[in-house]
Specification:
350 residues, Rossmann fold, 8-stranded mixed beta sheet, two-stranded antiparallel sheet, 19% strand, globular
Length: 350
């Protein structure tokens, strides 16, 4: 078994386990809905949404980067969009897209974009961040096509998907006005974040001074941090020295990028999470509060890394998006870039 195959299998297991735990391993019946979690329940015998699969938003070294787009059918679009980061252990797959996670937003009129990124161990986290930034640029560039306002985008995800959601929210980038590809001229930023049990500080995992690379139980994600650069001298890719790896981990940690201009952030996290400790969310929320950013941490008692019927908590996320995307609240987006890496950009899909 190759290194890629073995790590990929772990990624599949992580995604499958998370989906099974959070949905109770039960398919969602589109004909059954409760007023509490689904304000406009789908009508039996009628499709709740139109799903367009495998929409190409970019390429990375020839690898297709795709998303599935869900458009509401039973109520008018509300003009806002939600990106869902499909990611577990920074492994992503179209097979992991679960409509149950999109439905709580669809029934409120949101257009939902389920984003699949390139997976570790083939891609490092620095590259994966550029993939999901490309997805935001693509959605903004095609906002008119999908009937949404590019300034009314929210992002959500769990675990690694939560981390990517926070990076998009706290470390967005402006567009490149001189880019050949018009998509790359769009900014990679969102206006609200709501996520679950996210990693936020790779250099202080559980307690100060402990790196994500120090913990054996997290070995299955270490390939995402195997940062390399091409050496003209040796003619091959060489691993970065330790000091540069530490700097990269710092750059990829959402806590590094907190400032007063950040969009509102909601985090839901279990206090019995053994994989991503609750400390990760508390660290970030404390920094956001100090910066004066609207934020909230919902702690689930006795809950681990995912819990049965987590899908019901998506109503809380939808409420958050309603509050900050559908109201007149304005988020100040300053010019400039928040996160800079040396990794290559995602290619034009055309």
């Amino acid at each position: 078994m190759t290194r890629f195959t073995s790590v990929a299998l772990v990624g599949v297991v992580v995604l499958a386990t998370l989906l099974a735990v959070t949905t109770g391993a039960q398919p969602l019946d589109l004909g059954t809905a409760t007023a509490a979690s689904q304000p406009v329940p789908p009508q039996k015998g009628q499709a709740a949404y139109k799903r367009t699969r495998d929409v190409l938003y970019g390429r990375a070294y020839g690898t297709a980067l795709t998303m599935d787009v869900f458009e509401p059918l039973q109520r008018p679009k509300n003009g806002a969009g939600i990106l869902i980061m499909i990611s577990g252990g920074w492994f992503s797959s179209p097979e992991a897209i679960n409509p149950a996670f999109a439905l709580p937003f669809i029934i409120r009129g949101y257009t939902v974009f389920a984003v699949v990124h390139g997976s570790q161990p083939k891609f490092t986290l620095s590259e994966i961040v550029e993939h999901v930034r490309r997805s935001v640029r693509f959605v903004r560039h095609n906002a008119k096509k999908y009937g949404i306002d590019p300034e009314k985008l929210g992002v959500t995800g769990g675990s690694a998907g939560g981390h990517l959601s926070l990076i998009l929210g706290l470390a967005g980038r402006q567009g490149d006005a001189s880019a050949r590809d018009p998509v790359d001229r769009e900014p990679a930023r969102v206006s609200a974040v709501a996520c679950f049990f996210p990693p936020t500080d790779f250099l202080n995992w559980g307690k100060p001074g402990v790196s994500v690379l120090d913990l054996e139980p997290l070995k299955f994600v270490w390939a995402a941090f195997d940062f390399q650069e091409f050496s003209k001298e040796t003619g091959r890719f060489e691993r970065l020295p330790h000091e540069q790896v530490v700097n990269r981990l710092r750059e990829l940690s959402p806590v590094t990028h907190v400032d007063k201009h950040d969009p509102p952030v909601l985090i839901i996290h279990g206090d019995a999470d053994k994989l991503v400790p609750l400390q990760q969310s508390r660290l970030l929320i404390e920094k956001l509060q100090q910066a004066g950013v609207p934020c909230k941490l919902v702690v689930k008692p006795n809950a681990g890394h995912g819990w049965p019927n987590l899908v019901e908590d998506l109503a809380t996320c939808a409420d958050w998006f309603d509050r900050f995307l559908l109201s007149d609240v304005k988020i100040d987006h300053p010019e400039g870039e928040s996160l800079k890496t040396a990794d290559p950009k995602v290619d034009d899909p055309s």
